[in-house]
Amino acid sequence: HTLIIYLLVDILIAPSHVYEHIFFESVLGYDTTHMIDVNVISWLGILVGAVFSWRYFAVKKKSFKITFMIGLTALVAYEACMYFMIDRSTSKMLLSIPLFLRNFGYVTIAIVLLSDLLRVPFKYFFEALSVQTMISAACGGAIGSAIISHALHVVAPKNFQNISMSFDKYNPALQQHSEHLPHLLQQQVLLV
Predict the structure, then answer these.
(1) Is the separation of the CB atoms in 180 and 13 below 8 Å?
(2) Is 189 exposed, middle or buried (0-12, 13-18, 19+ CB in 10 A)?
(3) What is the pLDDT of residues 120-138, one digit of tens each?
(4) CA 30 vs CA 15, 37, 156, 166: distances in Å
(5) Fewer CB atoms < 10 Å away: N or C end of the chain?
(6) Which pTM value belongs to this model?
């Protein structure tokens, strides 16, 4: 059951992670320097998640379920933040909240599930760890990315068609923005 939970968590987080990169690069136009600043916040989430898991789970001896639910709550909060508070005017500081939550939650869940692997009936721990790593790295992210890729191929043309219905050369309100229109249209398709 641990491996299935790990697979489901990876599938849950993969689409948002893909959308996150599309949003940062295409909509906000972040370059490498901006992405480094954002990754520093992500590393902080990893560090705080590891320290929290150690203190709460290992030192205070709280249960697997409670610690897992705290991590899952952080991931769901990340998903909600990315969906409800992100728009074209979002600043880097506002983006720090969901990125911190994502990494905090993922590290907390990873530590709980790796600790739970001690109960898996393998003779050696590294066998269970290898299976978990293969599930996490190979299957979860790939399945989640495939789902989001398929969704984008289905939804993006519909969004493009719906948004561009009133964009034509005879619309006088758009004449002054005609050179920027394709780029703006592509950004709107991704945001919707």
Answers:
(1) no
(2) buried
(3) 677 776 677 777 777 666 6
(4) 20, 10, 22, 30
(5) N
(6) 0.69
